[in-house]
Amino acid sequence: MSARRTRIVDLIPAAAEGANVEITGWIRTSRFGKNISFVHVFDGSTPKTIQAILTPALAEAHKGDLGVGAAVRITGTWKASPGGEQAFEVAAHTVKIVGTCDASDYPLQKKRTSMEHLRTIAHLRPRTNTFQAVFRVRHAVSWHIHRFFHERGFLWIHTPIITTSDAEGAGELFEVVATGESGEPFFGRSAFLTVSGQLAVENFAQAFTDVYTFGPTFRAEHSHTTRHAAEFWMIEPEIAFADLDDVLALAEDFVKSVAEGVLTDCADDMAFFDRFIEKGLLDSLRAVLDAPFARVTWHEARALLAEAEAQGKTFEHAVSAPGFELQTEHERWLAEEHFGRPVFVTNYPASQKAFYMRLDDEETDGVATVAATDLLVPRIGELIGGSQREERLDVLDARLAAHGLPAETYWWYRDLRRYGSVPHGGFGLGLERLILWLTGMQNIRDVLPFPRTPGQAEF
Ligand code: 4AD
Ligand code: MG
Predict the structure, then answer these.
(1) Whose Cα sits closest to atom 27 in ligand 1?
(2) Ligand 1 centroid vs 93 CA: distance in angstroms?
(3) Quick one: which of 423, 100, 438 has its CA closest to 266?
(4) What share of residues in the chain are helix, strand, coil (percent, to 5)?
(5) In whole angstroms, how far apart are CA 364 and each of 308, 344, 371, 376?
(6) Helices (H), ranges, 177-241
(7) In this structure, which ligand is nearest to the CA of 244?
(8) How far apart are CA 255 and CA 231, in angstroms?
(9) Does the C-beta of 432 come closer than 6 Å to ligand 1?
(10) Among residues 263, 258, 271, 311, which one has the least CA distance to residue 148?
(11) Is the CB of 234 under 6 A from ligand 1?
Protein backbone atom coordinates (compact mmCIF):
# COMPACT_ATOMS: atom_id res chain seq x y z
CA MET A 1 0.00 0.00 0.00
CA SER A 2 1.62 3.20 -1.07
CA ALA A 3 0.53 6.59 0.10
CA ARG A 4 1.68 9.80 -1.48
CA ARG A 5 1.89 13.34 -0.24
CA THR A 6 -0.36 15.54 -2.31
CA ARG A 7 -1.13 19.22 -2.18
CA ILE A 8 -4.67 19.66 -0.97
CA VAL A 9 -5.65 21.62 -4.08
CA ASP A 10 -4.75 18.64 -6.25
CA LEU A 11 -6.36 16.12 -3.98
CA ILE A 12 -9.80 17.65 -3.95
CA PRO A 13 -10.83 17.11 -7.56
CA ALA A 14 -8.48 14.25 -8.35
CA ALA A 15 -8.42 11.59 -5.66
CA ALA A 16 -10.63 8.55 -6.22
CA GLU A 17 -12.87 7.12 -3.53
CA GLY A 18 -10.90 4.54 -1.58
CA ALA A 19 -7.46 5.88 -2.62
CA ASN A 20 -4.64 6.03 -0.12
CA VAL A 21 -3.54 9.57 0.38
CA GLU A 22 -1.05 11.43 2.48
CA ILE A 23 -1.54 15.03 3.48
CA THR A 24 0.85 17.43 5.13
CA GLY A 25 -0.06 20.75 6.64
CA TRP A 26 -1.04 22.70 9.74
CA ILE A 27 -4.09 22.26 11.89
CA ARG A 28 -6.70 24.99 11.60
CA THR A 29 -9.25 23.40 13.96
CA SER A 30 -9.56 20.16 15.85
CA ARG A 31 -12.32 18.50 17.82
CA PHE A 32 -12.19 15.50 20.07
CA GLY A 33 -15.45 13.79 20.97
CA LYS A 34 -16.56 10.53 22.41
CA ASN A 35 -17.82 9.20 19.09
CA ILE A 36 -15.96 11.23 16.56
CA SER A 37 -12.72 13.19 16.47
CA PHE A 38 -11.35 15.17 13.56
CA VAL A 39 -8.82 17.78 12.54
CA HIS A 40 -8.98 20.28 9.69
CA VAL A 41 -5.68 20.68 7.90
CA PHE A 42 -4.56 23.42 5.51
CA ASP A 43 -1.39 23.53 3.42
CA GLY A 44 -1.72 26.90 1.64
CA SER A 45 -2.47 25.45 -1.78
CA THR A 46 -6.18 26.31 -1.56
CA PRO A 47 -8.58 28.04 0.84
CA LYS A 48 -10.07 24.62 1.47
CA THR A 49 -9.06 22.49 4.42
CA ILE A 50 -9.11 18.72 4.53
CA GLN A 51 -11.04 17.07 7.30
CA ALA A 52 -9.26 14.03 8.68
CA ILE A 53 -11.39 11.69 10.79
CA LEU A 54 -9.46 10.06 13.60
CA THR A 55 -10.23 6.66 15.09
CA PRO A 56 -10.73 6.72 18.87
CA ALA A 57 -7.31 5.08 19.24
CA LEU A 58 -5.55 7.72 17.10
CA ALA A 59 -7.39 10.50 18.87
CA GLU A 60 -6.43 9.13 22.26
CA ALA A 61 -2.78 8.73 21.26
CA HIS A 62 -2.28 12.24 19.81
CA LYS A 63 -4.96 14.42 21.36
CA GLY A 64 -2.54 16.55 23.38
CA ASP A 65 -0.48 17.45 20.31
CA LEU A 66 -3.20 18.03 17.74
CA GLY A 67 -4.12 21.60 18.64
CA VAL A 68 -4.34 24.63 16.35
CA GLY A 69 -1.07 25.38 14.57
CA ALA A 70 0.55 21.95 14.90
CA ALA A 71 2.22 20.57 11.76
CA VAL A 72 1.08 17.09 10.80
CA ARG A 73 1.50 14.34 8.28
CA ILE A 74 -1.58 12.16 7.97
CA THR A 75 -2.16 9.09 5.85
CA GLY A 76 -5.56 7.60 5.23
CA THR A 77 -8.32 6.63 2.86
CA TRP A 78 -10.07 9.19 0.68
CA LYS A 79 -13.80 8.75 1.10
CA ALA A 80 -17.08 10.48 0.54
CA SER A 81 -18.03 12.74 3.43
CA PRO A 82 -21.62 12.28 4.63
CA GLY A 83 -23.16 15.71 4.97
CA GLY A 84 -19.89 17.52 5.56
CA GLU A 85 -18.99 20.92 4.20
CA GLN A 86 -16.82 19.18 1.63
CA ALA A 87 -17.64 16.20 -0.50
CA PHE A 88 -14.63 14.20 0.71
CA GLU A 89 -12.61 13.59 3.82
CA VAL A 90 -9.74 11.38 4.91
CA ALA A 91 -10.28 8.44 7.23
CA ALA A 92 -6.92 8.55 8.98
CA HIS A 93 -4.69 5.48 9.34
CA THR A 94 -1.62 7.16 10.72
CA VAL A 95 -0.96 10.54 12.25
CA LYS A 96 2.52 11.96 12.66
CA ILE A 97 3.09 15.15 14.58
CA VAL A 98 5.82 16.84 12.56
CA GLY A 99 5.97 19.98 14.69
CA THR A 100 4.09 20.62 17.89
CA CYS A 101 2.59 24.04 18.59
CA ASP A 102 2.50 25.37 22.12
CA ALA A 103 -1.17 26.13 22.71
CA SER A 104 -0.43 28.15 25.84
CA ASP A 105 1.01 31.07 23.88
CA TYR A 106 0.34 30.47 20.17
CA PRO A 107 -0.70 33.94 18.96
CA LEU A 108 -3.17 32.72 16.35
CA GLN A 109 -5.99 31.30 18.38
CA LYS A 110 -9.42 31.05 16.83
CA LYS A 111 -10.72 34.45 17.86
CA ARG A 112 -10.77 37.20 15.26
CA THR A 113 -7.86 39.57 15.46
CA SER A 114 -7.41 43.03 13.95
CA MET A 115 -5.22 43.75 10.94
CA GLU A 116 -3.17 46.05 13.16
CA HIS A 117 -2.47 43.27 15.62
CA LEU A 118 -1.63 40.84 12.84
CA ARG A 119 1.04 43.27 11.58
CA THR A 120 2.87 42.77 14.86
CA ILE A 121 2.98 39.04 14.17
CA ALA A 122 3.75 39.27 10.48
CA HIS A 123 5.79 36.07 10.74
CA LEU A 124 2.64 34.10 11.60
CA ARG A 125 -0.12 35.97 9.81
CA PRO A 126 0.48 34.07 6.51
CA ARG A 127 -1.36 31.21 8.23
CA THR A 128 -4.61 33.13 8.60
CA ASN A 129 -7.42 32.84 6.07
CA THR A 130 -7.10 36.45 4.95
CA PHE A 131 -3.35 36.36 4.39
CA GLN A 132 -3.54 32.97 2.74
CA ALA A 133 -5.90 34.54 0.20
CA VAL A 134 -3.82 37.72 -0.16
CA PHE A 135 -0.60 35.91 -0.95
CA ARG A 136 -2.16 33.42 -3.32
CA VAL A 137 -3.64 36.38 -5.20
CA ARG A 138 -0.32 38.24 -5.04
CA HIS A 139 1.32 35.28 -6.71
CA ALA A 140 -1.42 35.00 -9.35
CA VAL A 141 -1.21 38.72 -10.12
CA SER A 142 2.56 38.45 -10.59
CA TRP A 143 2.22 35.41 -12.76
CA HIS A 144 -0.43 37.01 -14.98
CA ILE A 145 1.74 40.09 -15.35
CA HIS A 146 4.53 37.98 -16.79
CA ARG A 147 2.06 35.98 -18.88
CA PHE A 148 0.55 39.13 -20.36
CA PHE A 149 3.89 40.50 -21.49
CA HIS A 150 5.31 37.18 -22.58
CA GLU A 151 2.30 36.53 -24.81
CA ARG A 152 2.88 39.89 -26.48
CA GLY A 153 6.57 39.34 -27.05
CA PHE A 154 7.87 41.75 -24.41
CA LEU A 155 11.29 40.98 -22.90
CA TRP A 156 11.62 41.09 -19.13
CA ILE A 157 14.68 43.20 -18.38
CA HIS A 158 16.24 42.97 -14.92
CA THR A 159 17.13 46.57 -14.37
CA PRO A 160 19.54 47.32 -11.52
CA ILE A 161 18.43 47.85 -7.96
CA ILE A 162 21.51 49.91 -7.17
CA THR A 163 21.53 53.04 -9.28
CA THR A 164 23.40 56.31 -9.45
CA SER A 165 20.70 58.54 -10.91
CA ASP A 166 17.37 59.69 -9.54
CA ALA A 167 14.97 58.36 -12.18
CA GLU A 168 12.05 60.41 -10.93
CA GLY A 169 14.13 63.47 -10.06
CA ALA A 170 12.12 63.72 -6.86
CA GLY A 171 14.98 63.26 -4.42
CA GLU A 172 13.32 60.57 -2.31
CA LEU A 173 16.25 58.18 -2.34
CA PHE A 174 17.80 55.67 0.02
CA GLU A 175 21.56 55.82 -0.19
CA VAL A 176 23.58 52.61 -0.51
CA VAL A 177 26.66 52.65 1.68
CA ALA A 178 28.95 49.72 2.54
CA THR A 179 29.07 48.95 6.25
CA GLY A 180 32.04 50.55 7.94
CA GLU A 181 32.64 52.62 4.84
CA SER A 182 35.10 55.46 5.16
CA GLY A 183 37.04 57.34 2.53
CA GLU A 184 36.36 56.40 -1.07
CA PRO A 185 32.72 55.22 -1.48
CA PHE A 186 32.28 51.61 -2.62
CA PHE A 187 31.05 52.58 -6.08
CA GLY A 188 33.39 55.52 -6.35
CA ARG A 189 30.40 57.84 -6.09
CA SER A 190 27.02 58.11 -4.39
CA ALA A 191 24.69 55.21 -5.09
CA PHE A 192 21.04 54.67 -4.26
CA LEU A 193 18.28 52.08 -4.24
CA THR A 194 16.23 52.42 -7.40
CA VAL A 195 13.05 54.52 -7.39
CA SER A 196 12.16 53.26 -10.88
CA GLY A 197 13.73 51.08 -13.53
CA GLN A 198 12.39 53.30 -16.26
CA LEU A 199 15.51 55.10 -17.43
CA ALA A 200 17.40 51.82 -17.67
CA VAL A 201 14.58 49.99 -19.41
CA GLU A 202 14.16 52.80 -21.95
CA ASN A 203 17.58 51.86 -23.31
CA PHE A 204 16.38 48.33 -23.89
CA ALA A 205 13.13 49.49 -25.53
CA GLN A 206 15.34 51.19 -28.09
CA ALA A 207 16.98 47.88 -28.85
CA PHE A 208 14.19 45.33 -28.39
CA THR A 209 11.10 47.53 -29.04
CA ASP A 210 8.84 46.01 -26.35
CA VAL A 211 10.27 45.43 -22.88
CA TYR A 212 9.34 45.63 -19.23
CA THR A 213 10.96 45.64 -15.84
CA PHE A 214 9.30 44.21 -12.75
CA GLY A 215 10.99 44.32 -9.40
CA PRO A 216 11.45 45.94 -6.03
CA THR A 217 11.42 49.72 -5.88
CA PHE A 218 12.36 52.00 -2.99
CA ARG A 219 11.21 55.46 -1.99
CA ALA A 220 12.17 57.43 1.07
CA GLU A 221 8.84 59.24 1.12
CA HIS A 222 7.57 60.18 4.54
CA SER A 223 4.04 59.31 3.53
CA HIS A 224 2.09 57.66 6.32
CA THR A 225 -0.79 56.60 4.10
CA THR A 226 -2.46 53.29 3.39
CA ARG A 227 -1.12 53.46 -0.19
CA HIS A 228 2.59 54.17 0.30
CA ALA A 229 5.40 51.83 1.24
CA ALA A 230 9.13 52.49 1.33
CA GLU A 231 9.70 49.20 -0.49
CA PHE A 232 7.19 48.10 -3.10
CA TRP A 233 7.17 46.34 -6.44
CA MET A 234 6.67 48.13 -9.71
CA ILE A 235 5.92 46.90 -13.22
CA GLU A 236 7.22 49.18 -15.95
CA PRO A 237 6.63 48.34 -19.60
CA GLU A 238 8.33 50.50 -22.21
CA ILE A 239 7.42 50.49 -25.90
CA ALA A 240 9.25 52.04 -28.86
CA PHE A 241 7.67 53.62 -31.93
CA ALA A 242 4.75 54.53 -29.69
CA ASP A 243 2.93 57.61 -28.49
CA LEU A 244 0.74 58.40 -25.50
CA ASP A 245 -2.33 56.75 -27.06
CA ASP A 246 -0.37 53.52 -27.45
CA VAL A 247 0.66 53.71 -23.81
CA LEU A 248 -2.96 54.17 -22.70
CA ALA A 249 -4.14 51.27 -24.84
CA LEU A 250 -1.43 49.02 -23.42
CA ALA A 251 -2.22 50.03 -19.84
CA GLU A 252 -5.92 49.33 -20.24
CA ASP A 253 -5.36 45.94 -21.89
CA PHE A 254 -2.83 45.08 -19.23
CA VAL A 255 -4.96 45.92 -16.20
CA LYS A 256 -7.99 44.15 -17.65
CA SER A 257 -6.07 41.06 -18.68
CA VAL A 258 -4.41 40.63 -15.29
CA ALA A 259 -7.72 41.20 -13.48
CA GLU A 260 -9.46 38.61 -15.69
CA GLY A 261 -6.71 36.10 -15.05
CA VAL A 262 -6.93 36.52 -11.30
CA LEU A 263 -10.72 36.33 -11.26
CA THR A 264 -10.49 33.05 -13.13
CA ASP A 265 -7.54 31.45 -11.35
CA CYS A 266 -8.37 32.62 -7.83
CA ALA A 267 -12.14 32.26 -7.90
CA ASP A 268 -12.29 30.87 -4.35
CA ASP A 269 -10.02 33.52 -2.90
CA MET A 270 -11.83 36.30 -4.74
CA ALA A 271 -15.14 34.99 -3.38
CA PHE A 272 -13.58 35.18 0.08
CA PHE A 273 -12.65 38.85 -0.41
CA ASP A 274 -16.12 39.57 -1.75
CA ARG A 275 -17.69 37.97 1.30
CA PHE A 276 -15.44 39.08 4.13
CA ILE A 277 -13.36 42.07 3.04
CA GLU A 278 -15.26 44.20 0.52
CA LYS A 279 -18.92 43.45 -0.20
CA GLY A 280 -19.78 43.81 -3.88
CA LEU A 281 -16.14 43.53 -4.93
CA LEU A 282 -16.75 40.97 -7.67
CA ASP A 283 -19.64 42.84 -9.24
CA SER A 284 -17.68 46.06 -9.28
CA LEU A 285 -14.61 44.42 -10.82
CA ARG A 286 -16.70 42.72 -13.47
CA ALA A 287 -18.40 46.00 -14.34
CA VAL A 288 -14.98 47.60 -14.75
CA LEU A 289 -13.76 44.88 -17.05
CA ASP A 290 -16.80 45.20 -19.30
CA ALA A 291 -16.54 48.95 -19.95
CA PRO A 292 -13.83 51.10 -21.51
CA PHE A 293 -11.81 53.21 -19.06
CA ALA A 294 -12.66 56.90 -19.14
CA ARG A 295 -10.22 59.53 -20.43
CA VAL A 296 -9.90 63.22 -19.61
CA THR A 297 -7.15 65.76 -19.88
CA TRP A 298 -5.89 67.39 -16.71
CA HIS A 299 -7.55 70.66 -17.70
CA GLU A 300 -10.86 68.89 -18.27
CA ALA A 301 -10.52 67.12 -14.94
CA ARG A 302 -9.87 70.40 -13.17
CA ALA A 303 -12.96 71.90 -14.84
CA LEU A 304 -15.09 68.96 -13.63
CA LEU A 305 -13.79 69.40 -10.11
CA ALA A 306 -14.38 73.15 -10.22
CA GLU A 307 -17.93 72.54 -11.36
CA ALA A 308 -18.51 70.10 -8.49
CA GLU A 309 -17.09 72.66 -6.10
CA ALA A 310 -19.40 75.33 -7.53
CA GLN A 311 -22.29 72.97 -6.81
CA GLY A 312 -21.39 72.62 -3.17
CA LYS A 313 -18.85 69.81 -3.03
CA THR A 314 -16.02 70.74 -0.65
CA PHE A 315 -12.47 69.56 -1.07
CA GLU A 316 -9.78 70.04 1.54
CA HIS A 317 -7.55 71.39 -1.24
CA ALA A 318 -9.56 74.01 -3.13
CA VAL A 319 -9.61 73.54 -6.88
CA SER A 320 -9.34 77.27 -7.57
CA ALA A 321 -6.16 77.65 -5.48
CA PRO A 322 -3.14 78.79 -7.52
CA GLY A 323 -0.75 75.96 -8.44
CA PHE A 324 -3.55 73.44 -7.98
CA GLU A 325 -2.44 69.81 -8.12
CA LEU A 326 -4.67 66.74 -8.09
CA GLN A 327 -4.71 65.25 -4.58
CA THR A 328 -6.00 61.85 -3.59
CA GLU A 329 -9.38 63.36 -2.66
CA HIS A 330 -9.77 64.74 -6.20
CA GLU A 331 -8.52 61.56 -7.78
CA ARG A 332 -11.00 59.50 -5.85
CA TRP A 333 -13.87 61.88 -6.60
CA LEU A 334 -13.12 61.60 -10.32
CA ALA A 335 -12.86 57.81 -10.33
CA GLU A 336 -15.53 57.02 -7.75
CA GLU A 337 -18.16 59.69 -8.02
CA HIS A 338 -17.85 61.34 -11.38
CA PHE A 339 -16.85 58.51 -13.71
CA GLY A 340 -17.59 55.54 -11.49
CA ARG A 341 -14.80 53.58 -13.19
CA PRO A 342 -11.08 53.85 -13.86
CA VAL A 343 -10.11 57.06 -15.61
CA PHE A 344 -6.94 58.14 -17.38
CA VAL A 345 -6.03 61.75 -16.72
CA THR A 346 -3.64 63.01 -19.39
CA ASN A 347 -1.59 66.05 -20.33
CA TYR A 348 -0.63 67.37 -16.91
CA PRO A 349 1.09 70.73 -16.50
CA ALA A 350 4.78 70.22 -17.24
CA SER A 351 5.70 71.88 -13.95
CA GLN A 352 4.02 69.06 -12.00
CA LYS A 353 5.68 66.12 -13.70
CA ALA A 354 9.07 64.47 -14.14
CA PHE A 355 11.71 65.82 -16.51
CA TYR A 356 11.54 62.93 -19.00
CA MET A 357 7.91 63.40 -20.05
CA ARG A 358 7.38 64.62 -23.58
CA LEU A 359 6.46 68.28 -23.88
CA ASP A 360 3.16 68.66 -25.72
CA ASP A 361 3.32 70.58 -28.98
CA GLU A 362 0.63 73.02 -27.88
CA GLU A 363 -0.12 74.70 -24.59
CA THR A 364 -3.56 74.62 -22.94
CA ASP A 365 -4.85 77.88 -21.46
CA GLY A 366 -1.31 79.21 -21.64
CA VAL A 367 0.03 76.26 -19.64
CA ALA A 368 2.78 74.02 -21.01
CA THR A 369 1.70 70.39 -20.63
CA VAL A 370 3.35 67.00 -21.04
CA ALA A 371 2.17 63.74 -22.62
CA ALA A 372 1.68 62.19 -19.20
CA THR A 373 -1.02 59.98 -17.81
CA ASP A 374 -2.16 58.79 -14.42
CA LEU A 375 -4.72 56.00 -14.19
CA LEU A 376 -7.07 56.65 -11.28
CA VAL A 377 -9.22 53.84 -9.97
CA PRO A 378 -12.05 53.72 -7.44
CA ARG A 379 -11.02 53.00 -3.82
CA ILE A 380 -7.32 53.53 -4.60
CA GLY A 381 -6.67 56.73 -6.52
CA GLU A 382 -3.47 56.55 -8.60
CA LEU A 383 -2.71 53.06 -9.82
CA ILE A 384 -0.49 53.91 -12.78
CA GLY A 385 1.78 56.79 -13.71
CA GLY A 386 3.16 56.92 -17.23
CA SER A 387 4.00 59.03 -20.22
CA GLN A 388 5.39 59.37 -23.66
CA ARG A 389 9.08 60.22 -23.23
CA GLU A 390 10.90 63.26 -24.52
CA GLU A 391 12.81 61.94 -27.51
CA ARG A 392 14.23 65.33 -28.64
CA LEU A 393 17.64 66.04 -27.13
CA ASP A 394 17.34 69.82 -27.10
CA VAL A 395 13.97 69.70 -25.34
CA LEU A 396 15.21 67.08 -22.88
CA ASP A 397 18.23 69.21 -22.00
CA ALA A 398 16.00 72.21 -21.37
CA ARG A 399 13.78 70.10 -19.11
CA LEU A 400 16.76 68.73 -17.16
CA ALA A 401 17.98 72.27 -16.64
CA ALA A 402 14.51 73.44 -15.58
CA HIS A 403 14.46 70.67 -12.96
CA GLY A 404 17.93 71.57 -11.77
CA LEU A 405 19.26 68.13 -12.72
CA PRO A 406 22.87 67.73 -13.87
CA ALA A 407 23.05 66.71 -17.54
CA GLU A 408 26.34 64.78 -16.88
CA THR A 409 24.62 62.25 -14.63
CA TYR A 410 22.18 61.48 -17.42
CA TRP A 411 24.79 61.32 -20.22
CA TRP A 412 23.80 57.82 -21.31
CA TYR A 413 20.11 58.68 -21.19
CA ARG A 414 20.87 61.70 -23.35
CA ASP A 415 22.90 59.54 -25.74
CA LEU A 416 19.75 57.59 -26.59
CA ARG A 417 18.40 60.84 -28.05
CA ARG A 418 21.43 61.07 -30.31
CA TYR A 419 21.61 57.55 -31.69
CA GLY A 420 18.44 56.41 -33.42
CA SER A 421 16.01 58.15 -31.08
CA VAL A 422 12.37 57.17 -31.61
CA PRO A 423 9.10 58.19 -30.01
CA HIS A 424 8.51 55.85 -27.09
CA GLY A 425 6.70 55.63 -23.81
CA GLY A 426 5.57 53.47 -20.97
CA PHE A 427 4.12 53.42 -17.52
CA GLY A 428 4.69 52.21 -14.00
CA LEU A 429 2.10 50.28 -12.04
CA GLY A 430 2.46 49.67 -8.31
CA LEU A 431 1.92 45.96 -7.71
CA GLU A 432 0.57 46.44 -4.19
CA ARG A 433 -1.95 49.04 -5.30
CA LEU A 434 -3.20 46.66 -7.98
CA ILE A 435 -3.58 43.97 -5.32
CA LEU A 436 -5.45 46.38 -3.02
CA TRP A 437 -7.78 47.22 -5.85
CA LEU A 438 -8.38 43.59 -6.79
CA THR A 439 -8.88 42.28 -3.26
CA GLY A 440 -10.58 45.16 -1.47
CA MET A 441 -7.86 45.08 1.20
CA GLN A 442 -7.51 48.50 2.78
CA ASN A 443 -3.86 48.90 3.65
CA ILE A 444 -0.69 48.39 1.63
CA ARG A 445 0.90 46.95 4.80
CA ASP A 446 -1.44 43.98 4.48
CA VAL A 447 -0.52 42.95 0.95
CA LEU A 448 3.25 43.01 1.45
CA PRO A 449 4.87 40.01 3.15
CA PHE A 450 6.88 42.21 5.53
CA PRO A 451 6.03 45.86 4.95
CA ARG A 452 8.64 48.60 5.17
CA THR A 453 7.24 52.01 6.01
CA PRO A 454 8.65 55.01 7.89
CA GLY A 455 9.68 53.76 11.32
CA GLN A 456 8.93 50.13 10.49
CA ALA A 457 11.29 47.44 9.21
CA GLU A 458 10.76 44.59 11.69
CA PHE A 459 11.13 41.01 10.46
O1 4AD B 1 3.98 57.56 -10.80
P2 4AD B 1 5.30 56.94 -10.50
O3 4AD B 1 6.22 57.67 -9.59
O4 4AD B 1 5.97 56.70 -11.91
C5 4AD B 1 7.23 56.26 -12.14
O6 4AD B 1 8.02 55.86 -11.31
C7 4AD B 1 7.56 56.15 -13.60
N8 4AD B 1 9.02 56.03 -13.75
C9 4AD B 1 6.83 54.98 -14.20
C10 4AD B 1 7.08 54.81 -15.67
O11 4AD B 1 6.59 55.58 -16.45
N12 4AD B 1 7.82 53.79 -16.05
O13 4AD B 1 5.09 55.48 -9.91
C14 4AD B 1 4.36 54.53 -10.65
C15 4AD B 1 3.39 53.80 -9.75
C16 4AD B 1 2.36 54.69 -9.07
O17 4AD B 1 1.29 54.99 -9.93
C18 4AD B 1 1.93 53.83 -7.89
O19 4AD B 1 1.01 52.83 -8.29
C20 4AD B 1 3.24 53.14 -7.53
O21 4AD B 1 4.07 53.18 -8.65
N22 4AD B 1 3.90 53.79 -6.39
C23 4AD B 1 3.90 53.33 -5.14
N24 4AD B 1 3.32 52.26 -4.60
C25 4AD B 1 3.51 52.05 -3.28
N26 4AD B 1 4.24 52.84 -2.48
C27 4AD B 1 4.84 53.95 -2.97
N28 4AD B 1 5.58 54.72 -2.17
C29 4AD B 1 4.67 54.23 -4.36
N30 4AD B 1 5.12 55.20 -5.18
C31 4AD B 1 4.64 54.92 -6.41
MG1 MG C 1 2.84 59.12 -10.06
Answers:
(1) 228
(2) 53
(3) 438
(4) 35, 25, 40
(5) 21, 18, 12, 22
(6) 198-208
(7) 1
(8) 22
(9) yes
(10) 258
(11) yes
